[in-house]
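Newbie here. two chains, one complex. Structure please?
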Amino acid sequence: MSATRSNAAEGETPPRSSGVGATYKFLSSVRLAILVLSFTAVACVIGTLLPQQAPAREYLSRYSESTYAIFRFLGLTDVFHSSWFLFLTGLFVVNLFLCSIERFSRLLKNPREDRIPNEKALRAWPNSFILKERRVEEMVSLFKGYRQAAHDDRGKIIDRGSISRYGVYVIHGSIIIILIGSLLGVMFGYRGFVTLGKGETKDTIIARDAKGTPIPLGFGIRLEDFQVSFYPDGAPKDYMSRIDIVDRGKDVEKADVRVNHPLSYKGASIYQATYGSDPVFLFNVGGKEVRLSQGGTYRDGALVMMATKFEPSIHNWGPGVQIAYLEGNETRTVWFVKAVPALREKEVGGVTVRLDDIAKEFYTGLEVSHDPGIWVVWTGFALILFGLYINFFVYYRRIYLLQTSEGVLVAGTSPRNKEVFREEFEKWREKANGIK
Amino acid sequence: MALNNKILGVVTLFYLCLFLIHLLYFATKKESFLKAAWIFLYVTFGLHTVGIITRWIESYSPWTWNGVLSLPYPQGPGHAPLSNFYESLIFYAWCISLTVILLKKKLSVPIITGFASLIALFCMGYASLSPAVDRKIEPLIPALQSNWLHVHVFACFIAYAAFAISFLCGLFYLFRLKGMPAGEKLEEMNYQSIMVGFPMLTAGILTGAVWANYAWGAYWSWDPKETWSLITWIVYALFLHARFTRGWKGRRLALLSIVGFLSVIFTYIGVNFVLSGLHSYGSS
């Protein structure tokens, strides 16, 4: 969007007859830009209204088999990773680049209109006044902040805010930089998820794709401790994982990872994403304290027992756990219920087993990502803000000073900010008339 | 009811009066009503600011938890009132008034300021009266405990407010009644508000992306709110290109600014109630 030049811009390029020329012209046209942006918007609407990357049954519960087949064929079940969306983005970058280059070269070739219109034309402008019996040279210093842009023997052109004309190119350039940065991230980075119980160490994470591909990190993460605190209404207030980075068998770094406070190690960032809890069963087996998590096994001599199933609520009796044990060669199961005395203590394989408590053990969910393009993206962000600032909050205006037989004719214009400039011009008029 | 709710309730009544003063102006066309409306807008905006600051201060007070005296700071340290639907509506109305005041320097059209105060009244009224809106001060969940909250929400809401002004300009351009300002004036104001809204929306999306990178581990994850803010951004980018490089004018641009605002509404409210995602803070 070049703010200062307008619709006449199209068709200024000399017509090229070859097919290459026509293609180039199409690829660098604003028409294509509008088309691509509109398509992208439609794609985004589809991508939020249709469930994305969901399992097949979710689609089939809402749509018929053939509709689902069409969705899959068109890539609508994963719009933002489909090949046509990638193509659209690529086309957008090419178009944005060519379009900007085209316009920018025109701006460089002919940076500004530098002919002073004739007296009659300038007198007709809404922003104009005449200073009788004065000369152009003595008037220039009055307009503080303005620079001389051009001059001829009849007068001068002074202007201000000309940097704003480059804003649009800074914005377009930054968008390309951001997209390149994100491409670097997609190509050379990774992202995944890992859950860790207290004391556990893992060196692979699971990618967030449909297959759940494991990704090796090259170092291990051990969860030393996990803490969560709650507000009185039960909402989480803060949660934190105390982790150790284990690299080549050595503890190299300790850190507390909290929401909004990630840890960086060797280019990977580790974020506190979620947490959850597993039940832990505290048994007293023949006088000994035994701690079993779900699926955990305890052996003592001939006794082998395993916590096979957890139910948060059995009838109305509260939580209970199913224990499987061996009697001879046969597997038997028995339920323990914490809140019912008769179901809390039983003989298992000749030993008295008592369920003392069912506790919660928290595990942490960490998001791990490596994004080599991130600084490119951040650079693009900073540049685009600068570009937006000079494009929207600085505005271009120019004043013509023309020597006439009567005196100096002053006329001003601002293509984009007429109302504000009108006020500014009024001030110049008052100031100029004040100098006698 | 806490003090902030009472103040904000009075502010709601003020917005009602503000709209009525505008109606009186439309009926009589007396300039004195317009002057009164502007003075009243400054007063309303001032009290509105006081209400928001009171709520901010009250979030630090140990007494506000469910109205029962409890241990100091049970809800954690206080926070800017930008964390739930009630607070966002209050803040949105505040942003609309601020935008109207800021744009006054460039342009002011009575029909636009009048209906902007109607939108603010609607937001304040819904926030203050609807049984579906929880007006209590709630503690901040961990993801929102960040300084990015202030700058991100501020940028987005100023943008939404500017787009509301643009929407009104487009709407009144299409349905011009007798005695309304000339089409060019509405077009100019429409464009001026998008000049504020578009860079602010961009800043809002970018600060959101930086924040998301710290909180969720990725600066962009095609979350519905992110995606819809991108759609809104595209619509206004189209507006600017259509105007400046294709020379669109009049009805087509007015329609585009209406479409843009529908997208804003969906980004702000629709996403929270229709689609689920990471950004589900504003819905209760």
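Moderator note: The two ends of chain B are 18 Å apart (CA to CA). Residues 225 and 268 of chain B are 8 Å apart (CA to CA). Thread marked as resolved.
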